[in-house]
Amino acid sequence: MLQQQQTNKRIKGHSPQRSPGKFCSNLLNISNKFAGTGGMCSSLAPKKSQAPQKVPKSGIFQALPMIEQTLFKKYYDRGDLPIAVNFSGAVRKIVWKCEPECLDYHLYLPIFFEGLREVEDPYKFLAVNGCEELLQKGETKILSVLPQLIIPIKKALATKNHDIMCITLKKIQKLVKSGQMIGEALVPYYRQILPVMNMYKNKRLNIGDKIDYSQRKNENLSDLIQETLETLEKNGGEDAYINIKYMIPTYESCMF
Asked: Beta partners for 242?
């Protein structure tokens, strides 16, 4: 009897064995672990408010970092353009290998408008001055070439480069005044060339009491856009103002 009672006590005092599945689940369940501060100090003082993060700039007015190679540079390097630089004298000039009136305007005038995107010499010098002389002596040849000039003008304005945009706007004014009916023929293409002007029309630089020397060279972009729009309205016929107003709501007519 005594021996049986001792065995019963041993069985009652013996702790039950843990099942292996439950033990593994406790090891895998670590959601309740590492819930403390880990020895970090705590304080009752209110937390300092963090400074709000600055909204990043959209960069909508930034110029394109790289400008793709133009057809003007390609043709000039191959020697296919009838133009060269004359360095004789104090001022550089351009020399034509044949008279500009004898050139095929359907081929060469769009190429020279492509060259308005160039930023390096002699390509920039040749493209700007060559385009100027072609517009002066083109007369009736320019009107038929007008649809081919829209894409080069659009690409030049889309670079958002200040110098390129100023040169292109001056050439647009020269183009409209170079012949009859050109201003009216340009009206259907306002939707392609005016959106960039709408962006920069009211973008002015606040310089306080300083002097803006860009006005001397007519390189103030906002003023140049206003002059270009007024030139388009004066030479674009009856529908010019309606189409300009549709694309640039802030524009006010100079005719009324």
From this structure: none
Strand partners, 86: 93
In sequence order, the 6+-apart residues with CB closer than 8 A to the CB of 16 are none
* Residues 197, 202: Cα–Cα separation, whole Å: 9
Looking only at the bridges linking them, the beta strands covering 93-96 and 83-86 are antiparallel
Q: At what angle do helices 71-78 and 123-137 cross, to 10 degrees?
A: 100
By CB atoms closer than 10 A (0-12, 13-18, 19+), residue 60 is exposed
What whole-number distance in Å separates Cα of residue 51 and Cα of residue 64? 32
Q: Hey, is 118 helix, strand or coil?
A: coil
Instruction: Going from the first residue of the chain to its last (256 residues), give the mean pLDDT of each consecutive group of 10, the final group possibly shorter.
Output: 52 50 52 58 76 81 80 89 83 86 88 90 89 87 90 91 90 89 90 89 72 69 88 89 90 81
Q: Are 247 and 190 within 8 A, CB to CB?
A: yes
Q: Read off the pTM.
A: 0.73
CB 220 within 8 A of CB 212: yes
